[in-house]
Amino acid sequence: MDSQRESLNLQKGLMNNMEKIRAYELSKIFGFPSKNIVNVLHEYGVSTKNHMSALSEYELDVIFEYYTQKNQAKDFSIFDKKKEEPKEAAENVSDNEDFTPVPEIEVGRKLRTVDTRVNNVDLDRIDDEKIEELIPENVKQGDKKQKINQKKKQQQRQQHSTKQKRKPENVIKKVEKKEKKVEPLNVLVPNEITVGELASRMKKSPAEIIKKLMLLGIMATVNETLDFDTASLMVEEFGGIVEKEIILTDEEILFDDFEDTAEQLKPRSPVVVVMGHVDHGKTSLLDAIRDTNVTEGEFGGITQHIGAHRVRVGEKKITFLDTPGHEAFTAMRARGALVTDIAILVVAADDGIMPQTIEAINHAKAAEVSIIVAINKIDKDGANPDKVKQELMEHGLVPEEWGGDTICVEVSAKKRQNIKELLEMVLLVAEMKELKANPDRKAKGTVIESQLDKGRGSVATVLVQNGTLHVGDYVVAGTASGRVRAMNNDKGKSVKKAGPSIPVEILGLSEVPEGGDEFYVVEDERKARSVVENRKFQEKKEKQKSATAISLDNLFEQIEAGKMKDLNIVVKADVQGSVEAVKQSLERISNDEVRVNVIHGAVGAINESDVMLASASNAIIVGFNVRPTNGASDAAEDAGVDLRMYRVIYDAIEDIEKAMKGMLEPTFREEVTGHVEIRTTFKVSGVGTIGGAYVLDGKIRRDSLVRVVRDGIVIHEGELNSLKRFKDDVKEVNAGYECGLSVSNYNDIKDGDIIEAYIMAQVEPE
Question: Quick one: 498 and 363 in the same domain?
């Protein structure tokens, strides 16, 4: 009994310390070689490597069970007193149909009886192959089904048992692995995030993030903003997984601008803009197309507003936009409104290519719209269409009949000649472009023009580009919003709906939108009003800070940031030869990083149209021996367009090359202080020519540098020799006052000349 007690105590001790028991230690306790223990485990399908292997709970159970059965008691007389209890148990078992006595099996040269009714036998711990080896052939063949049922019932009893069960080794190992395995942290990273917010999302302290950034050469504080790439690098450094956080604004949610599928898209009418030089017959051509007499009803025979009209050509329709030249066209493009598909360039056959024609060509090319040339007035004496085609080739438009891809149609708007052929060409180009839209969605389009009518309130002419606009729809256009109360087509008739490529006049907006504003139909009115208020706030904020436009000063920074690939330049010079020379010289300095494109070149002073084109194309204006007009200077300052004036072509080339290499460091900047108009001149012997002048704006100072500008062309630069008010010498004269002045070493000043006063101010280092 003492030995049994010791054995039980030993078992308890082993169970309490089973994780530390190795095979050789257990062999010492039992008094058997460790090889025997390993062999027993192998016999029961346990892959223990050697005597140094640590034994699991299950392996210990196998060892104890094996040696307990091998050394079982020979005398069972002690159980005679309790014979009645086994009988009752046997009777209960006999009622069980699934019970089958298992024959005796030879184990270690001795016979033993295995009672499968013991509910603590875990059949899953023994391989099926091992069970098959232990069961005799007669049992294998006849009682397989019974064996399987028995196994299933035993498993069910084990599952529903309230007793503590021991888990198999493989399950224990899986649990241990799951506990040890740490899942990497998924971190949502937006386009911009502060260091403090990133640390919070990564569950790290800001100090850890800052330390890691310092090791990477980035100095940042807790409130510093990191871009997506830097923040992603930080997450990866700490073993996290980066997920891009897409933050939808109220506008993106409200304006459901999803991509249409190919099945939803249906063909739409083309939108055509008519461009060209003054008095070349743009409106007369539209008049011939529409068979209406629009020209006579307009003041002075000049188009005063933007009109939108629909014409039917057979079974198809074309939408025409009549503009007062290219200015409005470019203004809309500057606001991001690409509303037209095709541009008809009207050129008079007797005049040929004119300055505004060249500008229209350049503007259409910059907008990347297809160009069809309508050579008008072929009925007039002196008409020379071939000359026009030759001039078109000089500007990159090669006619089809000469091997190019530009369609040229000779027409006469006055005699309605070849109008049908022109419209057919428009439809042909439109067919090649495969213009499509989805009419079965909420409308989206662009405001063409708008006005405030005393009787009707805010009136906007809009072009529907996608979807269908209905009366009663709630519309948001720029900073204006409202419900469409009424809708009229181009003929003035009331309509209930308008599909893609259809221009309509709508009433009901809260204020007058700007031309080029995109409009959307929305459902949530409250959210729409919130978006409009936010737009007004942002617009006010943008006006307060200067726009980040391209300039020679920040050119290299933008190249380094990967934002600048093309440098667009507008060239204005005093003569055509200078234009070509400057254009060729600038385009020649293109390199692998930046390509210089001269998008427009012309003769004359820099005007507002040039500034508008530069603003829309993100270009720099280079002036050679010319000056900007007052309106152009103000427009350039408002739009953030960089104006560069040069007298020597090599200076312009050198500046742009330095800017491309990042070496442009201007130390002085020219500041114009005022403009003075010469109204009369006096010749004084011994002194020279004295100019009687009137200060138009700003002021002129005695120490000012001056340049003499005649018809927008700089003819002289120098210094003031004298500045007087009446007979007194003065230091400065302000705007609105008269004065007398003379220019050093220059006596050829004439009536009407503009004296531009300026100073060279030193640029403070940033």
Answer: no
